[in-house]
Amino acid sequence: MAILIDSETRVVCQGMTGWAGTHHTAAMIEYGTKVVAGVTPAKGGRFHLGAPVFDSVAAAAKETGANASMVFVPPAQASAAIIEAVEAEIALVVAITERVPVLDMIRVRHALAGSKTRLIGPNSQGILSPGLCKMGVMATGSERPGSVGIISRSASLTSEVIAQVTAAGLGQSTTVGVGGDPVHGLSMRDCLELFLADPKTEGIVLIGEIGGEEEQEAADYIASVRPAMPIVGLVVGLHAPAERRMGHAGALTMHGRDRADAKIAAFEKAGITVASSPHLVGDTIGRALAARAKAA
Q1: Which letter does DSSP use for residue 278 in this model?
Q2: How far is CA 239 from CA 214, 236, 250, 267, in A?
Q3: pLDDT digits (tens, 9 = 90+) for 236-268
Q4: Residue of 198, 150, 177, 167 whose CA lies nearest to 286
Q5: Strand runs (DSSP E) across 47-112, as ranges?
Q6: What does pTM read for this prediction?
Q7: CA 172, 246, 267 angle in degrees (round to 5)?
Q8: Which CATH superfamily is domain 141-295 in?
Q9: Residue 245's pLDDT is what?
Q10: Which of 108, 147, 264, 270 is buried most, with the most CB atoms less than 10 Å from its CB?
């Protein structure tokens, strides 16, 4: 079983007619995702990649039954695009746009409060349920349907971990890129709750990095619920210099709790098994699941 998306997800792509939107939407369609419409203001009435284009998300949803939106919109306009999807009551919005202004994302947070919408991103590589649906720019080819849920802040490490989990014969239920910007939608903790409630997910991998306290919040949640499901964590950036942004807008160490070593300590205290190196994640979750099966 997948979380958030499946084979019946109907996607509208905001900004589909631009270069990035065209390229990545075509890849989503090729994967099998049901892209039912595009949205580009002043281009309504056209067709692009075989799908009708509308001037607004509300019109697209009304005509096509779209229940998810993929946002391919530049940073200055991204928050308005997300809020438009929220106001159209789209259930799931995935935003890949990087470095959306923080004040703009505060406005998005206010729009999300009490709404029917879940937001992934911005600065997310997307979400992937193998063989069912792909929303975003996540690399494909090594993914396989399986029982491991993956939650990640890092796009490149996501691809590596997916390949390792597949090589271990486990496969993935769903992989979620929560986003690397400092203010974003669904958190690691939010995704943990969804995976722990999914009967087909048997193990979880958390991929963290420096910056913020999202990993500590996830660890606090795990410590409070003490799930039987094996959870493996990886945190990168042990040698990252302080007060220097490392790639993602949110990967910035400013004080003690946002350092990699503090996050690792929080994982270990919560009972999360920490992989000592990125290349050991697949083996670590494989051994954790095998030990659980043996104990049962």
Answers
A1: G
A2: 19, 9, 17, 18
A3: 765 555 555 555 444 444 455 577 788 889 999
A4: 167
A5: 47-48, 51-54, 68-71, 92-95
A6: 0.93
A7: 50
A8: Succinyl-CoA synthetase domains (3.40.50.261)
A9: 52
A10: 108
Using the CB atoms, write b or e for 83-99: b if 16+ within 10 Å: bbbbebebbbbbbbbbe
Give the three-class secondary structure for 88: coil
Instruction: Mark residue 61 as left, alpha or beta (left: phi above 0; alpha: psi -120 to 50; beta: remaining).
Output: alpha
Six-digit token string for 271: 């009972």
Environment class of residue 108 by beta-carbon count within 10 Å: exposed (0-12), middle (13-18) or buried (19+)? Answer: buried
CA-derived radius of gyration, the chain = 19
Burial 223-242, CB ≥16 within 10 A → b, else e: eeeeeebbbbbbbbbeebee
196-205: pLDDT as tens digits = 999 999 999 9
DSSP structure string for 160-192: HHHHHHHHTT--EEEEEE--SSSS-SS-HHHHH
Residue 127, pLDDT above cutoff 90: yes
Nearest to 287 by CA among 233, 234, 219, 232: 232
CA distances to 87, 103, 137 from 247, rounded to whole Å, are 32, 20, 17
Task: Kindly report the average pLDDT of the chain as a whole number.
Answer: 91
Active-site amino acid positions: 248
pLDDT tens across 129-162, in order? 999 999 999 999 999 999 999 999 988 899 999 9
Query: What is the domain partition of the chain in residue ranges?
Result: 10-120, 141-295
Rounded-to-integer distance, Cα 257 and Cα 70, Å: 33
- Residue 75: DSSP 8-state: H
The answer to whether domain 10-120 and domain 141-295 are alike in fold is yes
For domain 10-120, give the CATH number: 3.40.50.720
